């Protein structure tokens, strides 16, 4: 029984995931069902930062396992407003490779806490237009509770600890307001940003 | 006299915009308290004073608050200025 039921129609199916690092694990995987008779399947943590458009389909495919009955997903998207202002796009920057290491720590924490199979964390960098995904987290597990709780823990911890920052671009006077760092441009504390 | 070393200061987000650059190499004592290190960096651009209460260091890739904690540095170490994360989601 799979709990995966998502529509990916709004995502570009042509998007190819580049083979460039930082892909922690080789992304090669068997099509679902093919290795159903294998006794073991190695667990994978797949972490990627990319400037390319993210595909929910591709990330969820990465965590599929015949041993699992659940895939839980979190997709963070660019919202078109912030404190009453119209947002045109977000721009993300990260301190790589520390960000990758911090995500790896989160994956390790998850495995201490829940019996999950595969974990995939993809974060987009650079400009992310409204409605497009900035982050996709996918976790597979034998039963739904583990992957649901793991995904929730992953995004909460990621937002608190992983050195990634966003800048919001508003359409007010076509001048970029900066919310990164001190957030002095419109006197917005970071805490507000955390309460998405 | 504590020997000095060359470390790489990395700026991100707001601090990068204030400083106007993303990285620079500075000479600092090999043994220095985190807060003293910040003061050294702050002398590079007075605008950084605005963010001193919002940032911590990552040295090397481990979070360090701007306190009296003593840092043992080596040439080539990265000192990242870290604002509170605001990742996607």
Automatic annotation (TrEMBL), chain A:
<feature type="compositionally biased region" description="Polar residues">
    <location>
        <begin position="1"/>
        <end position="15"/>
    </location>
</feature>
<comment type="subunit">
    <text>Heterotetramer; composed of 2 small (MOCS2A) and 2 large (MOCS2B) subunits.</text>
</comment>
<dbReference type="InterPro" id="IPR003448">
    <property type="entry name" value="Mopterin_biosynth_MoaE"/>
</dbReference>
<protein>
    <recommendedName>
        <fullName>Molybdopterin synthase catalytic subunit</fullName>
        <ecNumber>2.8.1.12</ecNumber>
    </recommendedName>
</protein>
<keyword id="KW-0963">Cytoplasm</keyword>
<dbReference type="GO" id="GO:1990140">
    <property type="term" value="C:molybdopterin synthase complex"/>
</dbReference>
<dbReference type="GO" id="GO:0006777">
    <property type="term" value="P:Mo-molybdopterin cofactor biosynthetic process"/>
</dbReference>
<feature type="region of interest" description="Disordered">
    <location>
        <begin position="1"/>
        <end position="35"/>
    </location>
</feature>
<keyword id="KW-0501">Molybdenum cofactor biosynthesis</keyword>
<feature type="binding site">
    <location>
        <begin position="143"/>
        <end position="144"/>
    </location>
    <ligand>
        <name>substrate</name>
    </ligand>
</feature>
<comment type="function">
    <text>Catalytic subunit of the molybdopterin synthase complex, a complex that catalyzes the conversion of precursor Z into molybdopterin. Acts by mediating the incorporation of 2 sulfur atoms from thiocarboxylated MOCS2A into precursor Z to generate a dithiolene group.</text>
</comment>
<dbReference type="GO" id="GO:0030366">
    <property type="term" value="F:molybdopterin synthase activity"/>
</dbReference>
<comment type="similarity">
    <text>Belongs to the MoaE family. MOCS2B subfamily.</text>
</comment>
<dbReference type="Pfam" id="PF02391">
    <property type="entry name" value="MoaE"/>
</dbReference>
<dbReference type="InterPro" id="IPR036563">
    <property type="entry name" value="MoaE_sf"/>
</dbReference>
<dbReference type="InterPro" id="IPR028888">
    <property type="entry name" value="MOCS2B_euk"/>
</dbReference>
<comment type="pathway">
    <text>Cofactor biosynthesis; molybdopterin biosynthesis.</text>
</comment>
<feature type="binding site">
    <location>
        <position position="159"/>
    </location>
    <ligand>
        <name>substrate</name>
    </ligand>
</feature>
<keyword id="KW-0808">Transferase</keyword>
UniProtKB/TrEMBL annotation, chain B:
<comment type="subunit">
    <text>Heterotetramer; composed of 2 small (MOCS2A) and 2 large (MOCS2B) subunits.</text>
</comment>
<dbReference type="GO" id="GO:1990133">
    <property type="term" value="C:molybdopterin adenylyltransferase complex"/>
</dbReference>
<feature type="modified residue" description="1-thioglycine; alternate">
    <location>
        <position position="89"/>
    </location>
</feature>
<comment type="similarity">
    <text>Belongs to the MoaD family. MOCS2A subfamily.</text>
</comment>
<keyword id="KW-0547">Nucleotide-binding</keyword>
<dbReference type="Pfam" id="PF02597">
    <property type="entry name" value="ThiS"/>
</dbReference>
<feature type="modified residue" description="Glycyl adenylate; alternate">
    <location>
        <position position="89"/>
    </location>
</feature>
<dbReference type="InterPro" id="IPR016155">
    <property type="entry name" value="Mopterin_synth/thiamin_S_b"/>
</dbReference>
<keyword id="KW-0963">Cytoplasm</keyword>
<dbReference type="GO" id="GO:0030366">
    <property type="term" value="F:molybdopterin synthase activity"/>
</dbReference>
<protein>
    <recommendedName>
        <fullName>Molybdopterin synthase sulfur carrier subunit</fullName>
    </recommendedName>
</protein>
<comment type="pathway">
    <text>Cofactor biosynthesis; molybdopterin biosynthesis.</text>
</comment>
<dbReference type="GO" id="GO:0006777">
    <property type="term" value="P:Mo-molybdopterin cofactor biosynthetic process"/>
</dbReference>
<dbReference type="GO" id="GO:0000166">
    <property type="term" value="F:nucleotide binding"/>
</dbReference>
<dbReference type="InterPro" id="IPR003749">
    <property type="entry name" value="ThiS/MoaD-like"/>
</dbReference>
<keyword id="KW-0597">Phosphoprotein</keyword>
<dbReference type="InterPro" id="IPR044672">
    <property type="entry name" value="MOCS2A"/>
</dbReference>
<keyword id="KW-0501">Molybdenum cofactor biosynthesis</keyword>
<dbReference type="InterPro" id="IPR012675">
    <property type="entry name" value="Beta-grasp_dom_sf"/>
</dbReference>
<comment type="function">
    <text>Acts as a sulfur carrier required for molybdopterin biosynthesis. Component of the molybdopterin synthase complex that catalyzes the conversion of precursor Z into molybdopterin by mediating the incorporation of 2 sulfur atoms into precursor Z to generate a dithiolene group. In the complex, serves as sulfur donor by being thiocarboxylated (-COSH) at its C-terminus by MOCS3. After interaction with MOCS2B, the sulfur is then transferred to precursor Z to form molybdopterin.</text>
</comment>
<dbReference type="GO" id="GO:1990140">
    <property type="term" value="C:molybdopterin synthase complex"/>
</dbReference>
<dbReference type="InterPro" id="IPR028887">
    <property type="entry name" value="MOCS2A_euk"/>
</dbReference>
């Amino acid at each position: 029984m799979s709990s995966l039921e998502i529509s990916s129609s709004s995502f570009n199916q042509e998007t190819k995931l580049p083979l460039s690092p930082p892909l922690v694990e080789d992304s090669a995987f068997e099509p679902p069902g093919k290795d159903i008779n294998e006794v073991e399947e190695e667990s994978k943590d797949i972490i990627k930062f990319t400037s390319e458009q993210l595909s929910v389909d591709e990330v969820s495919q990465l965590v599929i396992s015949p041993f699992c009955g659940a895939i839980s997903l979190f997709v963070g998207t660019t919202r078109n407003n912030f404190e009453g202002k119209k947002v045109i796009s977000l721009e993300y920057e990260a301190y790589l490779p520390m960000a990758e290491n911090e995500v790896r720590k989160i994956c390790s924490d998850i495995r201490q806490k829940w019996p999950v199979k595969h974990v995939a964390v993809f974060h987009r960098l650079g400009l992310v237009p409204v409605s497009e995904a900035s982050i996709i987290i996918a976790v597979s597990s034998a039963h739904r509770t583990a992957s649901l709780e793991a995904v929730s823990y992953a995004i909460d911890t990621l937002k608190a600890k992983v050195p990634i920052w966003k800048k919001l671009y508003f359409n007010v006077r076509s001048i970029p307001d900066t919310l990164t760092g001190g957030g002095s441009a419109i006197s917005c504390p970071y805490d507000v940003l955390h309460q998405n | 006299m504590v020997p000095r070393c060359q470390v790489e200061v990395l700026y991100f987000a707001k601090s990068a915009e204030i400083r106007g650059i993303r990285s620079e190499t500075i000479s600092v004592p090999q043994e220095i308290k985190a807060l003293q290190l910040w003061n050294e960096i702050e002398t590079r651009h007075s605008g950084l004073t605005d963010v001193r209460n919002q940032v911590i260091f990552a040295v090397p890739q481990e979070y360090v608050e701007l306190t009296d904690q003593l840092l043992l540095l080596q040439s080539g170490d990265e000192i990242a200025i870290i604002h509170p994360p605001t990742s996607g989601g």
